[in-house]
Amino acid sequence: MESLTLSDGEQRYYSDLFVYCDTDNTKKVASNGRVLDLFRAAQLPSEVVLQITELCGATRLGHFGRSQFYIALKLIAIAQSGLPLRVESLNSVKDLPLPRFVVGKNEAEARHAALYQEADSQGIYPGAGVIPRPPGRGLQNKKVTPVVPPVVPVHEVIQALAPASEPQCMVQPDSTSPVVSPHQSPPTSPHSWRKHKRQASGGSSAADRPPAVATAPAGVWTQFREAPTVPVPVPGDGMWSAHSPPPPPVQETWVSFTADTPPSSAIPAMHPSSVQESTTVRTVASAATTNEIQRQSSAYDDPWRITDEQRQYYINQFKTIQPDLNGFIPGSAAKEFFTKSKLPILELSHIWELSDFDKDGALTLDEFCAAFHLVVARKNGYDLPEKLPESLMPKLIDLDDSAEVSEAAVDVGYSGSPVEVTPNKSPSMPSLNQTWPEMNQANEDTAIVHPVPIRMTPSKIHMQEMELKRTGSDHNHPTSPLLAKPPELSEETKLAASLKFVADNAVGEGYSSSDSYTSDQEPITRQRSHSGTSPEALKVVGAAPPPPPPRPHPSHSRSSSLDMNRSFAAGAVAGQPQPGAIAYPPAVPPRPLPTQTSMPHGGHRSEVEGGGGTPLTASAPTTVTTTTAAAAAAATPAAPATSPHLIPHQPNFADFSQFQAFATSDQPSSLPEVDKHSEAAAAAVVVVAAAAAGQVGVLHTVEKPPEGAGPLRTVKSDGPAEERTPTSLNSAKGASGPLAPPPKPVRRRLKSEDELRPEDEPHGPQRSNLIAAVLATQPSIPRSIGKDKKAIQASIRRNKETNTVLARLNSELQQQLKDLLEERISLEVQLEQLRPFSHL
Amino acid sequence: MAVCIAVIAKENYPLYIRSVPTQNELKFHYTVHTSLDVVEEKISAAGKAMADQRELYLGLLYPTEDYKVYGYVTNSKVKFVIVVDSSNTSLRDNEIRSMFRKLHNSFTDVMCNPFYNPGDPVQSKVFEGMVSGMMVQVS
C-alpha cells in the first residue's frame, strides 16, 4: 500500500485503535475479532469494508499489520465521509475526520472523537443543511464539518442517487471544504450515510463535544443526538431542500466514524488529528448526506433521475476534463476519471457500455452525466441496470450535438438493435441504435426525438387554402373555369399535402390525415360544385356555405361521415331522394370514402364501397391510383355531351342526382383512399360501361366533370344507367361525403363530383351541372342529338373544357401517385432493412 | 443457430468461448482449437493479396459429420469461429455471414469500451447477450 501519512491526531487515534484490536499484542491484527467489530462499527456496508480490506492490503497479508490497519482506518474515514475509496485519497484528503465507529459502547471513543474533533468544523459548512437523525447514536462530534470541499457536489450527487431508501436526509451544505477533491465520486454507500446521519443527529457542535465527552457515555450520545439540532427538519427523507445552515454538528455526525470506536474498546484517547479528520470526514459525509437527501427526493420520482444539482455537478466535472460542453471526453480520460471511483473494472465497463450510447468510444455531456450517475448509484449500493434507464438516456437527436446519445440503454435487446441497425457500419462505426423503441423521455434532458407524423400542419394549411378557395369559389360560380384554376391549385396543394400526409402516416395515421385532407378538399370541392348553377347547386351553396372549416377532427370526420353515410346509404338504397339526409357527415374527403364501402348501400354502391373500402387501409398510393384512374377515366370520355340538353334536365336530374349523391355521400367514409379507389374503379367501370350503353354519352358527360369517377363508379356498380349515374354521383359524393360535414344532398352530389375530381373545384359546378345534365339527359341523349346542333356544339365545348380540367387533374394525380409510390418504396426498403434481423 | 461461438485473439488464445451447455464443451473447445489451423491456412493463402483483398468471411472451414465450422477473421487478426450443427440445414451462408457481422460489431463495441483491455477475456454483458441470441436455444 502506499505510504500513509497521518496527522498526529490520526496517528494517535489509529494507534489506539490498533492497540485495542491487537489483543494478542502481536503487532498485527487478524481480520477478525475486534478488527471486524471495529469495522462493523464503522457502519459501512460490508462490501465497502471488503473493499477497504482489500485496498489496505490486509487480504494480501491475511491480517492487518499496523500499517494496513492504519490504512484501513483511514479508508474507513474516507468512506464515511463519502469519498470514493481510492488509495490516492489516502493522502490526498486532508482534514479527514477520524473514522467513526458507531457503537453504543464507544462512548469513550466518542468522547475521544469529540476531543479530537475541533469545534471549528462546525463552521465549515456554511450552509450545509444536515439533518440530524433523531435516532442517531450520538455521534459525537459533528465537528467534522471542516472542510469537506467538493464533497458538496458529491453530496448532491449521492443524494440524488439515494433512492428513497434513505430515511434520513442530511442536507449538506455544499460549497465548503475544498479539501475533498472534486474528482471524488460520491460516497460509498447510502448506508454509511444513513448511519452518518444517525450519528449526525447525535452529534452536535463541537462545543458539545467536550461536554459530551465529559459526560457519561450515554450522555454523550444522547447529547449528541439532541445537539444536532439540525435546523433542517428531518423528516427523514428527501429533505434536501434544506440548505439552511445545518448545524455543523450534524455534519460531525456523519462522519462520525471518528468518534465512534468499537464498543468494546474504550479507547479514550482520540487523537486530535483524528478529530480533525473526522471533521473533514463529516463534512464530506454531510455532503454525502445532502446528496443522499437529494437522492431520496429524486428517488421519489424516479430512482434514476438526475436532479439539477447533480447534473450541475456532473457538468462541472465534465468541464474539468473537457472544457467544451459540446465536446467529447475521450475514452481514456473517462477511464481514468471513473477508475477513481474505485469501482471494479467490470462494473465500470458495464457502466460504460450502458452510457456510451452511440458507441463511439467517447462520452458527450449527456453520456457522461449518465455514466457518472450510474457510478454514483453503484457506489451507493444500487445495482446497475441491465439497460440504461430512460431518464438517463441522452437525447437521441440533440438539437445541437448528436453526441448526446451516449448513454444508451444498451441492454441485450438494445445491443441487438444497434448492431442490427448498422449492419452496414463497419465494425468501427458507432451504432446509433438507440432510438427506437425505448427512448422515452423521463427527463427533459433525454428527450428522444423520434418522428412524429405531422398531420396537423398540412391540414391547417389546407384548411386555409380551403377557406380561400371557398371564398373564391363562393363568389365565382359561373366562372368555373376561372375558379377551376385557383381551386385547382389549392386542390393540388391540398391533395399533395394530403398525400404527403398519407405517406407520412402511412404507418397508420395516414388514414386520418387523409381523411382530414380529403375532408379539407371536400368542402372546397363542394364549394366549387356548389357554384353550379343548378338550383341544387345554389341550394348547396346556400346549404353548405363554408365547408366545415378545418374539419374539426380529421379522424372524426371519417367516423361521423361513416355514420352519415350509413344513414344516407340507407336512404340511398331506397333510391329515394333524401333531401333530409342532412346527416351528412362533416367534411367528406373528396376521395371515395371508405365509409361508402362500409355502407351497405345498394349493390352498386356496395361495389363501390367494396372497392373503396379495400384500399382504405391499403394506402395512399392506392388512393392516388384510384384518383388518377378516376381522373383519367373521367377525362377520357369527351363525348360531346348533351350537356346543353342535360342542362335543361338538370333540375330534375339534379334532384335525382342529389338523391343519389345522398346515397353515395351517405357513405361518409372518410377514407379518401377508398374514395379514390372507388372513384378509380368506378371510373374504369364507367368507362367500360359507358362504351356499352347509350348512357355512354351520359357517362361521358359525367366523366367529363371531375366527378366522372362517381358516375363511373356507378357504372361499375351496374345498374340502370340512371341508377348508375346517380350511383356514381352518389359514390362520388359519398367519397366526398365523409369529408363534408355539411350534409346537403346537393353537396353530396357535388362532393362526389369533387371526389371524382378532387382538384377540379372550379369544375364542380360545371360538373354538377354536367353530371346532372348527363343524368338527366341520359335518356334524352338521343333527343339531344336529334335536337340542336348548337347545343351539341356547346356541349362539345364544355366537354372540352372539362377535358382539359380533367387532364390537368390527371397529371396532378399522376404526380401524387408517383410520390406515393416513392414513399411506398422507401417504406418497403425500411422494412427490408428490418427484416434481415429477424431470422436469427 | 450456433452451437458454439468463440473469439480468438490475435495470438491465438481465446478471448471468449461459449458453447451450448448440454454438450460436451470440451469437444467444442477442441474443435475450435483445431479450426485455428485451417484459419491460419486460409489467411496465409489469401495473404499474398493483402488484407484489403482478403475477405473477412472465411466460410466453411471444415465440416465433420456432426457439425460445421465457419470462420471469420478481422483485419486485426481476431478470429471468430462459429460451430453449427450439421443437422441444421436451414442455415444459409448469408445467415452465417450476418452472424459474423453481428459478432464483429459487438466485438468492436467491446473494444471501444475504454475499460476493456485488449487481450482480456470479454466479459461484456452486452456481448454475452448478443451471443446468447445466436446460440441454439437450450430448452
Set out the fold topology:
The complex is a heterodimer of chains A (840) and B (139).
Chain A (H helix, E strand, L loop, with lengths): L7 H14 L6 E3 L3 H8 L4 H11 L1 H4 L1 E3 H15 L6 H6 L14 H10 L4 H4 L26 H11 L28 H13 L6 H6 L2 H10 L21 H8 L16 H30 L6 H14 L7 E2 H9 L5 H11 L6 E2 L1 H15 L32 H10 L34 H20 L4 H25 L5 H21 L4 H9 L10 H21 L19 H5 L4 H16 L1 H16 L7 H23 L6 H21 L2 H9 L5 H9 L3 H19 L5 H12 L6 H15 L3 H7 L1 H46 L6
Antiparallel strand pairs in A: 1-2, 3-4
Chain B lengths: L1 E7 L5 E6 L5 H23 L9 E7 L3 E7 L5 E7 L7 H20 L12 H10 L5
Antiparallel strand pairs in B: 1-2, 1-5, 3-4, 4-5
Protein name (chain B): Trafficking protein particle complex subunit 2-like protein
Keywords (chain B): ER-Golgi transport, Transport
InterPro entries (chain B): Longin-like_dom_sf, Sedlin, TRAPPC2L
Q: How far apart are the termini of chain A? A: 50 Å
Q: Average the pLDDT over all residues of chain A and give the rounded result.
A: 54
DSSP helix count of chain A? 36
How would a textbook summarize the main sheet of chain A? 2 strands, antiparallel
Strand order of the largest sheet of chain A: 1-2
Q: In total, how many beta strands of chain B?
A: 5
Share of helix of chain A, binned: 55-70%
Question: Largest chain interface and its two residue counts?
Answer: A-B, 39 and 30 residues
What letter string, H or E per element, gives the SSE order of chain B? EEHEEEHH
